[in-house]
Specification:
This protein is α/β, with parallel strands linked by helices and 277 residues long. The protein is built from 10 helices and 12 strands. The strands form 3 sheets. It has a 4-stranded parallel beta sheet, sandwiched between helices. The chain is flat and about 65 Å long. The structure holds FE3-S4 cluster.
Length: 277
């Protein structure tokens, strides 16, 4: 069987940076990550074995060092850490950091900030904090059209992993309403590139494996894309969920993986397949 692995499979730049930072700082007790470093149990359990646990809030923990994941946080987390004498190890993705700066600066200039994104996502909650919680968070053009926007100047930015088409529809709505706004493209290409490659690869192969946690939104999206092209697509967390009969009659297998899937999982699956031959 021929195995084709997507070049974009696995960690994006920002996630790799955060995971590397976490694993290189397991030597001191009372080190925590603010939220799971990524949505992958293999990684979070490996960190727990080294004594680094995820916390959702700072209260109730004896924290010496706090690792900020790639999603970033609101300024309150830095302020509270400073007050409590906690050392912050900051793995906020530089692309997310840029959004924090835009939001902070435009808020200071009196703009209203519209953020295209999922209100429950930690990245959006962090971004909102940089405008003192005043961001207008909107999931799509329809929701935007139902809002009574205030008077004044607007800045439009988006969650880094948001779909460009959704933001384009929001822009079209604002244009149609003659609402003046500045737009800064904050969408990260890592997601788009991974999805485009998965779409192409799943059309070429007899069987497609999407590796990642069912809790990872981008893994689920990759699986949806692959399943639309190939009925023989499987979403698995690792080699332990693969059986030989998945590949019955297959000559080519494609593999991609979500942005939070570690290389060790991809290698384990490759080993499994190689042993079948
Ligand atoms: Fe950063 Fe883009 Fe990954 S924003 S965390 S490199 S998906």
């Amino acid at each position: 069987m021929k195995v084709m692995i997507a070049e974009t499979a696995g960690f994006c730049f920002g996630v790799k940076r955060a995971v590397d930072l976490a694993f290189s700082n397991t030597n001191e007790a009372n080190t925590f990550t603010y939220g799971p470093i990524i949505h992958n149990e293999v990684v979070t359990q490996a960190l727990e074995q080294k004594g680094v646990y995820a916390i959702d809030e700072m209260e109730g923990h004896d924290i010496k060092r706090l690792i900020i994941r790639s999603h970033g946080v609101s300024p309150e987390v830095y302020d509270q850490s400073k007050e409590k004498g906690i050392e912050v190890l900051d793995a906020t993705c530089p692309y997310v950091r840029k959004i924090h700066c835009y939001v902070r600066d435009y808020d200071a200039k009196g703009y209203h900030i519209i953020v295209a994104g999922n209100v429950a996502h930690p990245e959006i909650q962090g971004i909102n904090g940089w405008a003192h919680g005043k961001c207008i968070i909107v999931k799509d053009a329809e929701e935007l059209s139902q809002m009574a926007l205030p008077e004044g100047k607007f800045l439009l930015v988006a969650q880094t992993t948001y779909k460009k088409e959704v933001v384009d529809q929001m822009r079209a709505y604002l244009d149609k309403q003659h609402i003046e706004y500045e737009y800064i493209n904050t969408i990260c290409n890592a997601t788009k590139e991974r999805q485009e490659e998965a779409a192409l690869l799943s059309q070429k192969v007899d069987c497609m494996l999407v590796l990642g946690s069912p809790k990872s939104a981008n893994t689920k999206k990759l699986f949806e894309i692959c399943a639309a092209n190939s009925k023989r697509s499987f979403c698995v967390q690792g080699a332990q969920e693969i059986t030989a009969d998945m590949f019955n009659g297959c000559e080519t297998i494609g593999i991609t993986a979500g942005a939070s899937t570690p290389q060790i999982v991809i290698d384990g699956v490759l080993d499994f397949i190689n042993k079948l031959e």
